[in-house]
Amino acid sequence: MHVLFFDDPAIRPHLLPLTFTRPVAALRCGILTLAEKWQRRLGAPTVGYLTQPYLQSKFPVCADGMVTGPALVVNGAVCPDDLLVRQVQALAPGQGLYCEEVLVAAHLADASQVAELIQDGLREQVEVAEPVTLISRPWHLFLRNGVEIRRDFALLTQGRTSQPVGDAHTIVYAPENIFIEEGVKIRAAILNAESGPIYLGRNSEVQEGAIIKGPLALGEGAVVNAGAKLRGDNTIGPYCKVGGEVGNSILLGYSNKGHDGYLGNSVIGEWCNL
What we know:
Layout: E1 2-6, H1 34-42, E2 48-50, E3 71-75, E4 78-79, H2 82-89, E5 95-99, E6 102-108, H3 114-120, E7 124-127, E8 133-134, H4 138-157, E9 171-173, E10 178-180, E11 185-186, E12 190-192, E13 198-200, E14 205-206, E15 211-213, E16 216-218, E17 223-224, E18 229-230, E19 234-236, E20 241-242, E21 245-253, E22 256-257, E23 262-270
């Protein structure tokens, strides 16, 4: 079954300028993007996006541009949890799952009905068992980030074994809350996961003298500069570089805040240089 994420027209404008260059579901909160969270929990091999026409070349509906047959259509602004995913999987064709007036997800027998669904809604409506977490404003991303790092950490590391720290001069607190992917390089740093998990993505680097406090997500290929202080609830996206002091912030990816100075309570997009 196809899994398609739609940009809720009542939400997308409030997430600008971040959603000028990506669908809502491509926003990162925690370790994963909203789409990646759903994809992993649903076990979907691929996902598609129903977004602005000018974004479809980068975020297509599917590889050949056409979707036929049954589909799960999911509101890209919703953060999933186990209970919500079970409710979505239990939807029968023609049913929509709602949180009050907000469409959370729908099961369509024919994916060509998507336009009518978004415009008119579904006649057969099911209410969610619990209120959902909706990312409808930019600040919701960093306010929610610590919780989502913990959830994603559990999702990504379940049944897996971390790589070792591999550096005798690195000090580690609560090692059971630290997960290191392959290719990570750490030198003479302090990793304190007593307040939340620390996830170090594939081929990332933590340089000398860096102090890292969890919850923290360091994406693939990202670098923490020498002497940096990461205060907690931070997501450093893929191939970012950070230095100085950073707290409760998200760098979506490919951005640079390499110098000293403070960054806090912020969301930084891709390809930004501070």
